């Protein structure tokens, strides 16, 4: 490892130094790190299938198993993966298991259970694991075999990335959300964060709820970032306390830390955005500049936008209104806890009265597996995580991405609209 004299360090440099037991790291260094939390998902156990199950694991108390992608099981293969997951937990003494009935999209459950800790290192075999960065945790998705290796050794390696910083100021206007912030970043700055870590900070962050921060952190991978990180403040600490975490140990960048790129973003100047089909980076524009686009399906859900706050926004838009003829509106709560809270608050009833379908708390429609696959030639507007060709079903379908408010408003209008057009 290159050893450079001490100086101002970025957040990811500090966290990876801590995890690897060295005094300092710099961008480009190769480090071997102790992992604080390993999260396994149901799809990963389809690969296990009884023949690559490890002989031993490093620490069962640092392992969580979350049923999230195919729940309840839509196929025999998925059902057998569940059998394997339960057998694995029993064999190795893994006690933290979110099984069917307590399930949810893994990044939502990670937040609810306080598994992403400030200053810590978390891995999972899902690309949107960067969601944990909202809690000041270096969280990253890795391949199933890499996660299997970490299960056995408790360690992984990283090349320390450079850092991109977005400094937020101002407050978001009504009906503009964190999803629009992400789309603005994607459309304005493109792939500048590719293979780098993103830091999101500034006075504007204080006005963003934990749900909004988690949306932003989750979407970092769509900007091709390795990690997305935010500071730990009162909002973070309150969310951690609600999850039973009372001893956060946060890490943040030094003044003058090296940055590969930095930009200031005034939240008060943003408007609703939409991403045109097939990709997000360099393809996101204000809804006001989008060509007229009729939709057949609208989707609200995923780890990015299936949170209770997202469902509340959708219900507020749909109250007293109805989904347009010829349009399907599918809503997926991000977890059973979210589904229960939505039912208790009357949100679910409002959605159903408006003609929406509310599904099980799973990843299904987001990755084109079940619970709302899009057909040939159809146009879908989604408040999920990504929109590349074939992502939500047919490779001939067109998938656009927007906020829950924009999706709900468009479901009412039958075409992609600025939500402020519907509410007047």
Description:
The chain has 424 residues and is α/β, with parallel strands linked by helices. It has three domains: 147 residues, Aconitase, domain 3 (2-Layer Sandwich), CATH 3.30.499.10; 107 residues, Aconitase, Domain 2; 150 residues, 2-Layer Sandwich (Aconitase, domain 3). It is built from 14 helices and 18 strands. The protein has a seven-stranded mixed beta sheet with strand order 13-12-18-17-14-15-16, with helices on both faces. The protein has a five-stranded parallel beta sheet with strand order 4-3-2-5-6, sandwiched between helices. A four-stranded parallel beta sheet has the order 10-9-8-11, covered by helices on one side. β8, α6 and β9 form a beta-alpha-beta unit. α10 packs across α12 and α10 runs parallel beside α13. The longest helix has 17 residues. The N and C termini lie far apart (59 Å).
Report the average pLDDT across residues. 96
Distance between the termini: 59 Å
Helix content: 25-40%
Strand content: 15-25%
Principal-axis shape: globular
The main sheet comes to: 7 strands, mixed
Kindly give the count of domains: 3
CATH superfamily of the largest domain: Aconitase, domain 3
Structural category = alpha/beta
**Largest sheet, spatial ordering of strands:** 13-12-18-17-14-15-16
How many β-strand runs? 18
Total helix count?
Answer: 14
CATH topology of the largest domain: Aconitase, domain 3
Poorly predicted residue ranges: 1-5
Radius of gyration over all CA atoms, rounded: 21 Å
State the gist of this model.
With 424 residues, the protein is of the alpha/beta class. It contains 14 helices and 18 strands.
């Amino acid at each position: 490892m290159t050893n450079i004299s001490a100086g101002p360090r970025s957040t990811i440099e500090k966290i990876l130094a801590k995890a690897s037991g060295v005094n300092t790291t710099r961008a480009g260094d190769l480090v071997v790190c102790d992992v604080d939390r390993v999260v396994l998902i149901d799809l990963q156990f389809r690969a296990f299938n009884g023949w690559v199950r490890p002989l031993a694991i490093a620490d069962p108390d640092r392992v969580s198993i979350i049923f999230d992608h195919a729940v309840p099981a839509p196929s025999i293969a998925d059902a057998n993966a569940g059998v394997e997951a339960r057998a694995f937990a029993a064999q190795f003494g893994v006690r933290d298991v979110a099984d069917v009935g307590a399930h949810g999209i893994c990044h939502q459950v990670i937040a609810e259970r306080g598994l992403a800790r400030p200053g810590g290192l978390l891995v999972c075999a899902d690309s949107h694991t960067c969601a944990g960065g909202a809690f000041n945790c270096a969280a990253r998705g890795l391949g199933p075999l890499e996660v299997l290796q970490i299960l056995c050794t408790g360690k992984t390696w990283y090349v320390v990335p450079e850092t991109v910083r977005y400094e937020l100021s101002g407050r978001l206007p009504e009906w503009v959300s964190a999803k629009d912030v992400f789309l603005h970043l994607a459309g304005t700055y493109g792939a500048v964060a590719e293979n780098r870590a993103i830091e999101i900070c500034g006075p504007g962050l204080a006005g963003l709820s934990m749900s909004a921060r988690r949306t932003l952190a989750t979407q970092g991978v769509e900007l091709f970032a390795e990690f997305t990180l935010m500071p730990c403040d009162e909002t973070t600490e309150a969310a951690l306390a609600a999850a039973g975490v009372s001893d956060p140990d946060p890490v943040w960048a030094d003044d003058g830390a090296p940055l590969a790129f930095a930009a200031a973003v005034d939240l008060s100047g943003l408007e609703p955005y939409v991403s045109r089909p097939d990709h997000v980076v360099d393809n996101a524009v204000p809804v006001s500049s989008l060509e007229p686009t009729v939709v057949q399906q609208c989707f609200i859900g995923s780890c990015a936008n299936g949170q209770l706050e997202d469902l509340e926004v959708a219900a507020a838009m749909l109250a007293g209104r109805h989904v347009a003829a010829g349009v399907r509106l599918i809503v997926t709560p991000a977890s059973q806890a979210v589904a229960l809270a939505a039912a208790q608050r009357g949100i679910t009833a409002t959605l159903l009265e408006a003609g929406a379908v509310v599904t099980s708390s799973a990843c299904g429609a987001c990755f084109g597996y079940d619970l709302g696959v899009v057909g040939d030639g159809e146009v879908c507007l989604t408040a999920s995580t990504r929109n590349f060709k074939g992502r939500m079903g047919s490779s001939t379908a067109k998938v656009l991405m927007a906020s829950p408010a924009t999706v709900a408003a468009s479901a009412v209008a039958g075409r992609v609209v600025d939500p402020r057009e519907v509410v007047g």
